[in-house]
Design goal:
Strand content: over 45%
Number of helices: 0
Order of helices and strands: EEEEEEEEEEE
Radius of gyration: 13 Å
Largest sheet: 7 strands, mixed
Helix content: under 10%
Shape: globular
Oligomer: single chain
Number of strands: 11
Distance between the termini: 40 Å
Length: 124
């Protein structure tokens, strides 16, 4: 059974930083591209960013470019989301997911394995 577990969320003031982690088990982690998605209150879950299986390639939503960075450590079966210059609008539950459809890297439908999410709250 594939298990993805996010951690690192919490309450932070605007302008601050958080580092989310997603630990994976039950799959050959190094063989999967990974995505991060966020679901803000009253909004649909949306794409935040993507990292290729090797970590060589990343892509981000326009709203987080220059502020968020995705990285991974395949030896630790872990993918990270470094969030800097946080804004109240970043408040959301953040989910990691394993990409199972190569052409769907920026779509929810491209991911079949999801974590439970971790809450990030940014205060003004």
């Amino acid at each position: 059974q594939v298990l993805l577990v996010e951690s690192g969320g919490g309450l932070v003031q605007a302008g601050g930083s958080l580092r989310l982690s997603c630990a994976a088990s039950g799959l050959t982690f190094s063989g999967y591209a990974m995505g991060w998605f966020g679901q803000a209150p009253g909004k649909e879950r949306e794409f935040v960013g993507f990292i290729s299986a090797s970590g060589a390639t990343t892509s981000y939503a326009d709203s987080v470019k220059g502020r968020f960075t995705i990285s991974r450590d395949n030896a630790k079966n872990t993918v990270y989301l470094q969030m800097n210059s946080l804004k109240p609008d970043d408040t959301a539950v953040y989910y990691c997911a394993a990409n199972t459809k190569f052409t769907g890297w920026n779509r929810i439908s491209g991911y079949d394995y999801w974590g439970q999410g971790t809450q990030v709250t940014v205060s003004s």
